[in-house]
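Supplementary Note 3. Input sequence used for the single-chain structure prediction.
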Amino acid sequence: MRACVGDSVIVDAADVVATRLDVVPERVSALHALLSDAERRRASRIAFGRDRRRFIVARGRLRQLLGARLGARPESVELAYGAQGKPALAPRFAESDLRFNVSHCDDVAAYVFVFGREIGVDIEAVRPVGDADDLAARFFSDGERAAYEALDPPDRPLGFLTCWTRKEAFIKALGDGFGYPLDRFDVSLRPDEQARILRVGHMSGDSCGWCMMSFVPAPGFVGAVVTESKAS
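The predicted structure, written as discrete structure tokens, is reproduced below.
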């Protein structure tokens, strides 16, 4: 699935939005005005101007997107965080049952929104990763590692990042952070395969209660979304 920058794409009731973070200074200033005091303090502590600008734009854009879905002013949106840092709406917005997640890499950000179900997203720029083989050996499951090693060498960078984004999207949907063992579940990673959760513990992916989708947030990037399955 392609979610071109600036578009909003609906997939399985999840709303996927991709946006660029390299905007003109006037836009950065306007988005900075939407931030909370805590967010402004956090931005002021970021040493590098590029990283500070990316944070301001990413957080300001999130507020705009949440405000549009809540019928609220962006600057009035209050956020809360789970024990492992997963962002959520503050209790006063709980009745909306809107869940969301965010990922950004370089100058691209992706946002996902859904009502009544947990959700996670991750994106990465496709690039060679020097220690990919070592990371796969440490963090991939046995099945994922075998699938990765079976790829032709030119396909391995994409295979590695495809697997990594899918695993991280699942971890973010769970909200457990990296305390959840990464080898406890399998995801598909071959470029010619559909995005799927293949196994969670001793349970097959088809009955694990989660579904996975891949998307392209911008040329040269890969992304994955994991949502809690709809209640039957």
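The helical segments are 25-32, 37-44, 49-70, 132-139, 142-149, 156-174. The CA atoms of residues 43 and 51 lie 9 Å apart.
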